[in-house]
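A further point concerns the way the authors explain their paired sequence and structure data. For illustration, here is how one protein appears when written out as sequence plus structure tokens:
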Amino acid sequence: MDVETGRRAADFLAAAGPWVARDPVRHNVVATVSAGAALIDAELQWAVARENGTVVGAAVCTPPRAALLTTMPAPAAATIAEEFAMAAFGPTGASGGPDEVEAFGDSWTAVTGEKVTARTPLGIYRADSVQAPADVPGAVRPAAESDVSLLTGWVSEFLAELHHSERHPDPQALLRSRMEGNRLRLWEADGRPVAMASTSPPVDGVSRVSLVYTPPAERGHGYAAAVTAAVTQQELDAGARACMLYTERANATANRVYQRIGYVDLGDHIEVRFA
């Protein structure tokens, strides 16, 4: 197993970009993060594993966050963990398929002594078409500057409810980054916002839906399904081949909602934290 490492995102894309693009749904976050880092020439720890000269796996990490793993054989994940352990900065956790993350985590523990302290099972979903719920009152609209105060609170509440290993240090910065390009949408009913969802620009033809949130007082009316269907349809209409999203396996309601509007469960994903 040969592993190449580096810090420039452009070099990562040159080494593994075409291989990452082979699975644009499961590799969406890796592709999005590396493309974004290349755009601004940001520091990015990366590794590409090869067998007999052929790429079989890759990982990226932006400090101080988790290592993002593509699909790969377990030995490749273990070797990449060893390489990351020798880097000037290390990941706070790992995110990827269960087998890859388990192999990465075991190797990380063996080298560093750090253990997995939190584990969040996720599901990964894809939609090539979507069926909007017909019985939900209201309509979708872009988030506006006048919504910032309300939505900053929503983003904070959304992050507080997550069990993922990652957190964003600045909810308003996250909010404004999603508002750029009208990529944060609200579902409005009775003249007031009742739910939100955002999308990422398509990478390799796939857009990721995230930040889906309905305040507790507005739940049970189908607003999350409606806003998710609306932003998904907008991405498909704009030219995306597909949309994808993650759900927490423990959230049975969310998993049902996404399947009801046309998302297909592709399997398991997992996030772990090291300490």
In short: The chain has two domains: 2-114, 127-267.
